[in-house]
Design a protein that fits this description.
transcription; WH_DNA-bd_sf; mainly alpha; about 140 residues; Arc Repressor Mutant, subunit A; about 10% strand
Length: about 140
């Protein structure tokens, strides 16, 4: 298996991965047919991109005769982390707090969403206390 690559997916790679995540297991031809509904794409281009996604650890394949069946090797959420980090860096000067504040002011949170976020924060704090090298952003003065 290829070593997982944490660099963000390109838009074209993400399109291919969306097809794979939706269908669970696909051939190159199936991916091409699905993408061709939106625009013309060459089979060789899709084949090359799929091979590169497999090399980066996003896809795995199994062989059935002469057909390669591809499936996701990483969950859909794995592609979002690097993109979100880029967005936080670019739009919010690297501050997750500013991003959350903007989101809450714009759209708000349901009680269930707030509860789940609290649980995620609690989990992150526990993990951070067990691994002092793990980054947990703190405000100046030691406030969290």
């Amino acid at each position: 298996m290829a070593k997982p690559d944490s660099t963000p997916l390109t838009e074209a790679q993400r399109e291919i991965m969306e097809v794979v995540w939706d269908q669970e297991e696909v051939t190159v031809s199936q991916v091409r047919q699905r993408l061709a509904q939106r625009r013309e794409v060459a089979r060789n281009t899709i084949q090359t991109m799929i091979v590169r996604l497999e090399e980066r650890g996003w896809l795995k394949h199994r062989e059935e005769g002469r057909t390669f069946w591809y499936s996701a090797n990483r969950p859909r959420t794995a592609s979002l982390g690097a993109k979100v980090a880029q967005m936080v860096d670019r739009l919010f000067a690297g501050s997750p707090e500013e991003m959350v504040t903007a989101l809450m002011e714009y759209r708000g949170l349901s009680a269930d969403e707030a509860d789940r976020i609290r649980e995620m924060i609690d989990t992150a704090e526990v993990k951070s206390s067990k691994n002092p090298n793990r980054k947990l952003n703190k405000k100046p003065g030691g406030q969290s």
